[in-house]
Amino acid sequence: FPLLSSYSNATFIVDGADFDGTNDHMTRGAGLTGAVDSDLGILSVWLRVDGGDGTIRRFFNALDATGALVGPRFSLNASNQFLMTLVSDGFQQHSSALLASSTWRHILASWNKSSGSSGPAYLYVNDVSDQTVTNAGGGVGTEDWTFTNWVLGGASDISPITQICNGCIAEFYLAPGQYLDFSIDANRRKFINTNGKPVNLGTDGSRPTGTAPLVYMHLDNNEAVANFAVNAGSDAGTFTITGTLETSSTSPSD
Q: Residues 32, 236: contact at Cβ < 8 Å?
């Protein structure tokens, strides 16, 4: 790889997928291939919140065999905070309020709860620490990443779908079992450059750590928006789109 300083501010143009807040969402229809229980993880995602202030909006969560919400989850809560919950670990953290706006926000989180509540965790919004811990951890067991289905952009696949995402998503990267300390500036530069723009994570998302994340949903500039459902991460499975995704009218690269 080139030295960090040689690519951290390079122009990297990506597109996002627009979820309409009505019925647009994507389901895996199966477990994530290769997933194992782990108390470590990394999340990176670019969000443009287009609406739904004051309501719960799900971005990514697990489903059980009945389609009900279970396990780890990432959402905007009714207070408009980005909320991350690890159920088995008993850990929860959230950001400050992210109201609907034409501005893209970059959410970056990492956690290492293998030693329970004493394990470190970080949450950054647009490269600024924005973390409130509401539950410190030390839960009942290792976090389960092996559920039978996963949904991006909604709460479940039970009709009617609720808690639908109203906004745009780009560069969704989720790596259970991997960890980086995001209090270290150089580690954040692996996901966001000093100009506050996306950087190239590699075709399979492996560039930041040398190992592909379990989930990496990505669109190149002008790529067909349906390809956002194709997981370029190690799971290498395709999600099923419900509704009609559109290419976002703006990009986090703008």
A: no
Q: Rounded to whole angstroms, how far apart are CA atoms 129 and 141?
A: 28
Separation of first and last alpha carbons in the chain = 25
> Would you say 51 and 102 are in contact if contact means Cβ atoms under 8 Å apart?
no
Q: What is the pLDDT of residues 146-189, one digit of tens each?
A: 999 999 998 766 666 779 999 999 999 999 999 999 999 999 99
Closest residue by Cα to residue 144 from 87, 74, 59, 66: 87
Per-residue pLDDT tens for 117-147? 889 999 999 999 999 999 998 877 899 999 9
Are 98 and 59 in contact, with CB atoms under 8 Å apart?
A: no
